[in-house]
Model the fold of this input.
Amino acid sequence: MADWAPSDLQVERERFRRRRSLTRGAVAGASTLVVLVGLVVLMVRAPGWERVSAAYFDLAYAREVLPDLARAFVLNVKLFLVAEALILVVALLVAVIRIVPSPAMAPLRLIAIVYTDVFRGTPTLLVIFLVCFGLPALQLQGIPTDIFWLGVIALTLSYGAYVAEVLRAGIASVHPSQWAAGRSLGLGYTQTLRHIVLPQALRRVLPPLINDFVSLQKDTALVATAGLVEVLREAQINASRDFNFTPYVVAALFFIVMTVPLARFADWLALRQVRREQGA
Amino acid sequence: MTPPLLRLEGVQKHFGDHAVLRGIDLDIEEHEVTCLIGASGSGKSTLLRCLNLLETVDDGMIWFDGRDITDPRVAADAVRRDIGLVFQAYNLFPHRSVLDNVTLGPIRSRGIKSAVATVRARDLLARFGLAEKASSYPDSLSGGQQQRVAVVRAIAMAPRALLLDEITSALDPLLVGEVLEVIAELKTEGMTIVMATHEMDFARDVADKVVFLDGGVVTEEGPATQVLDDPRDDRTAAFLARHLKR
Done:
């Protein structure tokens, strides 16, 4: 291999490939530019554009509300992070309870099935109403009255059921031969589950899991309906004061900016795993 | 004469209406290589899975070291620690490195300290020419390398018997040799081996006993040269005629 020099034929082929990819790049760049410019021109020249731009994209106003919205968005991030951690715990418990064949688990298994059926079938907004308005009204001891924690409970109940089903599907997707290999080494059911099946299941369900968490990030805004002044509520307050929708657009940007890195991170994780395991 | 390490008595295994094992009687002597031969579907794999308790027998007994392991009161995990099984499709753990594949059993199942298990695993991998692959992942290895890792994973548990389920069937003919060499080496160390195989030449060279299975029963058993070269049962003869002509 060391003394190999490309033949004239190969040199010519590579020159052709280079030329072709340059042409293709130029075509792609030019057509993108034409379409984008066209769209902007169309938008700006459309009747009513000035009203649209003033109502949705008022830059000066956006700058003015930005600090308030950012402060409120911190609450969304906290809600999301706390709920996400709890959801993973709840979902893992429910998923494992549903698959472990131990007879002692029978009553727990029934509870887990009813839980997933009920909370997966109930609108998240409805759960938030039930928990955030219902629980404090009971005036029971030990139940938090803080709307933030009630929001966390409601989101965890609702998303725990979804994520549990994702995890359960992941566990079921691991081939029985992996169970057999683990058991043949004398590992018990739980050990095989923990060291062999669950790690593979979690990697496999990472994309749908991230999907659910992106959805959760957005649904933190639902807690606004229970009176929590998070970013949506803050935007609403500002928007209704001045009849300008720019705060909503800014709030939307906050959510988008938070979800994009999560999606890229998930892609990166998946790619790293493939590279490592396939040795590419 | 010492009693056999494994003894099967009237073992039955049915899947629904399909009877796979129909009364197997067989002795497996310690430190011997026993080869199970027979057509696909003759019950070789099921027999091995019953020995490792991955399948529960429907009737009969399997004695291991003087104890009936088919008794439902027996702790199956403890039995499996002493009876290793290597699968046709390797069944390595794709999410763990080669080294971690080998140390998982000793650490988690035998309770051996991680440092000790790692040293032993590296020794074993080195002995079977896999030292440089210790930190690789199974999917980046060739089939022959993967199967050798699977054998090392099984013997790292220091089992009293090793069951091999057609471990060369999924391999390129060129890679079969490197795996069979490992088995021949294990025989010289006195490992008790039961292997389902289609490698008749290997069976003739290495096996102490060859057992021919047909339709879920043992139709013939004996020394390798006798069963393979001078079969007494018509079904064995017909099977061998088909197999050896190739």
Q: What stands out?
A: Chain B has nine helices and ten strands. The interface with chain A takes residues 52, 54, 77-81, 84-85, 87, 89, 91-95, 104-105, 108-110, 136-141, 153-154, 157 of chain B (CB under 8 Å).
